[in-house]
Amino acid sequence: MSVGSGGTEQPSSATGASAKEADYQHPLRLLLSQLTLTPVLCLLVLLTVFVVVLFAPWIAPHPEAAILTDESFSLPDETMLLGSDFLGRDMFSRLLYGARVTLSVAFAIAIIAFVLGGTLGFFAAVKRGWVDSVLSRSVDALISFPAIMVALIVISALGSSIPVLIVTIALIDSTRVYRVARALGMDIGVQDYIEAARVRGENMGWIIFHEMLPNALAPLAAEFGIRFTYAILFISALSFLGLGVQAPQADLGVMVKENMQGLLYETYTPLYPALCIAIVTLSINLLVDWFLKTTDAALPDEL
Amino acid sequence: MTLFTLIAKRLLVGVVILFVVSALIFIGTEILPGDVAQAILGQGATPELLENVRVRLGLNDPAPVRYFRWLGNLLSGNLGASMVSGADIGQLLGERIWNTVMLAGVTALIAVPLAIGLGLLSAIKPNSLTDRAISVVSLSLISLPDFLIAIVLVMIFAVKLGWLPAIANLRPGQDFFTVARMMVLPVTVLVFTVLAHMVRMTRTAVINVLSSPATEMAILKGVPRWRLLLVHALPNALAPIANVVALNLAFLISGIVVVETLFNFSGLGRLMVESVSTRDIPLVQVCAMIFCTVYVLLNLLADIVAIVSNPRLRYPK
Fold first, then answer.
1. Which residues of B touch A45 (CB under 8 A)?
2. Which residues of A are less than 8 Å from B239 in CB distance?
């Protein structure tokens, strides 16, 4: 629609290096040399979260659903590090399991959105013509809905289950990936090396995977981080509304919702899952911010 | 092309989009589930009950017939009845639309000027201390879930200090002071959720304008700083800023749904969440249609502001 009226930034990752060959540094070495305190901390946090989520069943001191006390919102003690939840279950163990659900669902969403939106975006940029028109108009139609409305409409029709949530949110997310990939593809598509590949008679799959993708890698990596946080926030919000992950499974959003009454008893219980979400999303966003600045990559117009 | 025909064309596109949106809402709610009656009643429904619901919703007619009947009813203001309570949807909406408009309106009135001000402030001197502080705070706000901000504010101002009510249970006949007190927390949370994106995007838009050759020329001419910003930069930044504001009202829509549920606020967002969880299809359709129409109209308005404020857009390449 009317994107692009403001920004004229060019994704310069492709051309930046070749301009000054003398200063050439391998991108990874460049990143390493620019590593400051913030990105290191973010990486450590994310690594810890990753390990904890992966090994949750071994780390958690208690089973997810075991009711250990008949006291709701008990204070932290030696057996229960963060006290009990509204049913008397160990909050700490539940957080580990909940984070596992939230992060794996969000990761699945981001991956699907990327494969779908990225492939179609590059495809549209290479093919142009009617293929591009049809794909872009379909994306426009989806974008003329507020994202949350699409999710609510589908959930009201199909009910809420993890596969439905993943596919729906991935579809919403893929529209944005499509636009980014298409814009990147359009920019890269006019470069000489693509022309050369065309003249050599390479087929389109080869051009996309060997010429375009490597040159779009930096902005796409940043976009992946953004999509992943978006998916985390989206799924958590839906769960918080009671329309996301359903019992007996619980993700972090569900845990905020079910412990909300604890606020009246002046406990911090509903705050813990919300903080877990915030720590992950904040770390990813700070990392993406640093990455974009360091690699001098730019995402086509913020949307 | 004259300004008038361009705007008329854009309006026509808006009508087409609304038409597509209504069709997609209809497809999503009535064709996607296969059998709506089954979806509403669940697996255990008896054939008699299913038939009963089908007749009530008119599900025995072919889909296009149902769609145009539904659209015709919507346009003539006949919104039908709720599946769950049987209440007239028009009556259910009345009070709630007003509440939601108030919530969104107050939020926009505070958030939009504040965001543009902060965006300008950080764009004037990029990488200054102010700019970096604003950018770190807005990045953090973007990363936080809406309910975290709400929980923290409720904890401090409602539970610990007891200054403000933790829920905003609006009822008819409350006096202005009571309503205002209940609105403080929901509005604050919403302002926080929409502010960050708006600040960041305003900053980008203004920096883009400030780095244009025209601005450089103005600086070299010796134009005073205030004049540079207000006369040279702001008119050019108006179109992208209008775009930013319209885009962010989408965040406001999802924010409203969460905040209304959180504060037990009797508005359209909570009504929609309730109707989705009880699978009250007719009510979902109407609520979705209202939210989507508002969203499409806002985008339309932003495009028209862009066309009026930026003469270059009047001559498409």
1. none
2. 5-6
Pairs from A90-95 (Cβ < 8 Å, separation ≥ 24)? A90/A60, A90/A61, A90/A62, A90/A66, A91/A269, A91/A272, A92/A60, A92/A61, A92/A62, A93/A60, A93/A61, A93/A62, A93/A63, A93/A64, A94/A64, A94/A250, A94/A255, A95/A252, A95/A255, A95/A272, A95/A273, A95/A276
| DSSP label at residue A251 | -
B254 touches chain A (CB under 8 A): yes
Interchain CB distance below 8 Å, A281 and B144:
yes
B208–chain A Cβ distance below 8 A for any pair: yes
B203 CA to chain A: closest CA distance, Å? 11
- Reported ipTM: the value is 0.84
- How many CB pairs below 8 Å do chains A and B form together? 161
Q: What is the CATH number for B242? A: 1.10.3720.10
Tokens of A260: 């909300």
Range of the structural domain that residue B150 is part of? 90-279
Residue-range domains of chain A with CATH: 55-295 (1.10.3720.10)
Give B165-204 pLDDT, tens digit per residue. 777 777 777 777 777 778 888 999 999 888 888 888 888 8
> Per DSSP, what are the bridge partners of residue B88?
B81
In A, which residues are within 8 Å of B25 by CB distance?
Answer: 153
Please indicate, yes or no, if residue B75 is contained in any of the structural domains. Answer: no
Our count of domains for chain B comes to 1
Range 270-299 of B in CB contact (< 8 A) with A: 272-273, 275-277, 279-281, 284, 288, 291-292, 295-296, 299
pLDDT per residue over B79-115, tens digit each?
Answer: 777 777 777 888 888 888 888 888 888 998 999 899 8
> Which two three-digit tokens encode residue B217?
């020329």
